[in-house]
Write a structure and sequence with these properties.
The structure holds two protein chains of two kinds. By secondary structure, chain A is an all-alpha fold. Helix content of chain A is about 75%, strand content about 0%. Chain A starts with a helix and ends in a 13-residue tail after the last helix. In chain B, α2 packs antiparallel against α3 and α11 packs across α14. Chain B has a two-stranded antiparallel ribbon. In chain B, a hairpin with a 4-residue loop joins β1 and β2. By secondary structure, chain B is mainly α. Chain B is about 75% helix and about 0% strand. Chain B has one domain. Chain B contains 21 helices and two strands. The chains are: A mainly alpha, B mainly alpha. At the A-B interface, α1, α2 and α3 of A face α7, α8 and α11 of B.
Chain lengths: ~100, ~475
């Protein structure tokens, strides 16, 4: 069996790649993809903890199911608003979203 | 407990769900001529819910401990209810404007859905319910912020909010997943996590991520960068909702989780909360001074107010919790009073700069005096409720010997007086005959909201029974 640490290396890497991508990507859809990476890192964590540590119950699996569902809802709302940005500016680059500052 | 008993135990949530369903059906089937009655119907129904919330309820535990309700959570929900009813009353003007009027029912429905999420967040007994409540509270809010579809500012604020909210809840969820690893197989019930919340590195990392996620929601200082932009861009009535109800719900939920789940880690989160308070109060104040726009100014003022609110939480005693809840109550009435006037002026004239308020006293004496009283209450000047709430929060912190922190907070109170008085100065002394805002005639709904807010600001501090009532039910670190 693969040692449990291997999974955590993967999930932590995914989390921080997601954070890095969220900060650096110039495109809003790419930012959303980075968010998905973060949420999937969480799902891996839940599934692995459940499978390795508490194999007799399913709470972690349930949690990741709910988190997948909520992530989908989040993406739907975010994309709806991003489409609205596109209607105004014809662009979805983050440097275009600069009306509100100071 | 059978299934029906479990569901009936969720009194507040059931009532809100009932109103949401009723409003959806009403909006679909009411005749076109009855379109305008929806304001009255939703305000009246919500008033009933608020009134029912004041009826005391005993401790309830439903769904095997996933849902916990106690008198103190009922009081917190009532505080949120008061904020929502004031926001409903003052948004009639905005809802009657041309671009919004045809979709006004959705505003009520979305606001009530966020409120439902906040209820779940406050009375959760399990991290799953907590997380679902948190998301239910932030997703409809993003839709509301981007509600003025044709205004680019509103859309921009919406996209900033939804991206930051999703990012912060991702971090929070990562924290919860680490807590799950250290929970020892008994699941993510608050009880079972508390039993095993020993200072191991896994638990501490989980706590840090959790705190970061919640601090985004309350917009405490290293995590506040979205606040001013979103507050400025959102429709003003939604800004009012965001700065009062959404913020205080997240603060309540954070307080309950810290008190219920992590008392054993107090030595660790004490420092984090300490640093967050110092940073929020100071930086919120310093940035508020240089703002020219009223809504941005109120955003930074709300950041520093959230810092004061956390002082009560840091004390970790029953008195600290009482003072924090009381602080929210007082902050709600004062801030929503200000927003009633700001939104009225913005919806009539489109002006939001502080300099636009020059000479407001000449044209609108009543509004200016009301605004002055609310600003004094926020700044903490004695006869008003704001003084007492700040006093109790400081007293709670002094009781636990945080002298340095209270000293910093006191200096900041004096600083905050400067920028609150800038607005008062603009209204009373500033003289600008040409561009002064013309005389406004507020409608009945806004007037009612202003009177309720004014009564709250004047009376909450003088009626000591309210503080004593909250204190009966509060608890400290368990």
């Amino acid at each position: 069996m693969i040692p449990i640490e291997y999974y955590f290396v993967i999930s932590t890497l995914m989390l921080f790649i997601g954070v890095y991508g969220f900060i650096t990507r110039p495109n809003m859809l790419a930012m959303l993809m980075s968010l998905e990476l973060i949420l999937n890192a969480v799902n891996i964590n839940f599934a692995v903890f459940n499978r390795y540590l508490y194999a007799d119950q399913l709470e972690g699996m349930f949690f990741s199911l709910f988190s997948i569902g909520i992530a989908a809802a989040e993406t739907a709302v975010a994309i709806a608003i991003i489409i609205n940005v596109f209607r105004h500016e014809k662009k979805i680059e983050t440097n275009e979203v600069k009306n509100l500052k100071y | 407990m059978n299934y029906l008993d479990n569901i009936l135990a969720m009194r507040a949530e059931l009532l809100v769900v009932a109103q949401i369903i009723f409003l959806i059906i009403y909006d679909l089937f009411a005749p076109k001529t009855a379109g305008k009655t929806i304001d009255f119907v939703s305000c009246a129904l919500f008033l009933v819910i608020t009134a029912v919330g004041f009826i005391p309820q005993a401790d309830v535990e439903a769904f095997g401990g996933m849902y916990l309700s106690s008198p103190i959570t009922e009081i917190m929900k009532s505080a949120l209810n008061i904020g929502v009813i004031l926001m409903f009353l003052q948004s009639k003007m905005w809802l009657n404007s041309e671009q919004i009027a045809h979709k006004r029912a959705e505003v009520y429905i979305l606001v009530l859905s966020t409120l439902l999420g906040m209820y779940l967040m406050i009375s959760s007994g399990h991290f799953l319910i907590f997380y679902i409540g948190l998301e239910m509270a932030s997703l409809p809010l993003a839709a509301l912020i981007a509600y003025n579809k044709y205004s680019y500012n509103s859309v921009e604020a919406g996209v900033k909010y939804i991206l930051m909210a999703a990012f912060s809840s991702g971090l929070l969820l990562f924290g919860i997943s680490l807590l799950y690893g250290s929970s020892g197989g008994a699941g993510l019930y608050f009880e079972s996590v508390r039993a095993l919340a020993i200072p191991s590195s896994l638990t501490l990392l989980g706590l840090v991520f959790f705190l970061a996620g919640m601090a985004f929601k309350i917009s405490l200082v290293p995590f506040h960068l979205w606040t001013a932009d979103v507050y400025q861009g959102a429709p003003t009535n939604i800004t009012a909702f965001l700065s009062v109800v959404s913020k205080s719900a997240a603060a309540f939920a954070l307080m309950l989780v810290l008190f219920k789940v992590f008392p054993a880690l107090f030595d660790y989160w004490e420092y984090v909360v300490y640093a967050l308070i110092v940073a929020s109060i100071t930086i919120g104040n310093l940035f508020a001074m240089r703002q020219k726009n009223m809504k941005r100014f109120l955003a930074y003022s709300s950041i520093s107010q959230a810092g004061y609110l956390l002082l009560g939480m840091l004390a970790g005693t029953a008195f600290g919790m009482t003072s924090a809840v009381y602080y929210v109550l007082v902050y709600t009435v004062a801030n929503l009073g200000i927003f009633a006037i700001v939104s009225e002026i913005e919806n009539r004239t489109g002006k939001t700069e502080i300099s636009d308020y020059n000479g407001l006293y000449k044209t609108n004496p009543y509004l200016s005096v009301g605004m002055m009283l609310f600003l004094f209450s926020l700044a903490g000047i004695p006869p008003f409720a704001g003084f007492f709430s700040k006093f109790f929060v400081f007293a709670a912190a002094v009781e636990k010997e945080y002298y340095g922190l209270v000293f910093i907070a006191l200096i900041n109170t004096v600083l905050s007086l400067y920028y609150y008085l800038l607005v008062v100065k603009a209204m009373f002394i500033g003289n600008d005959k040409i561009t002064a805002i013309a005389r406004l005639k507020t409608n009945g709904y806004t007037k009612t909201a202003l009177f309720i807010a004014l009564a709250g600001t004047l009376l909450l501090g003088l009626l000591s029974c309210i503080f004593a009532y909250i204190e009966d039910f509060s608890f400290g670190l368990m």
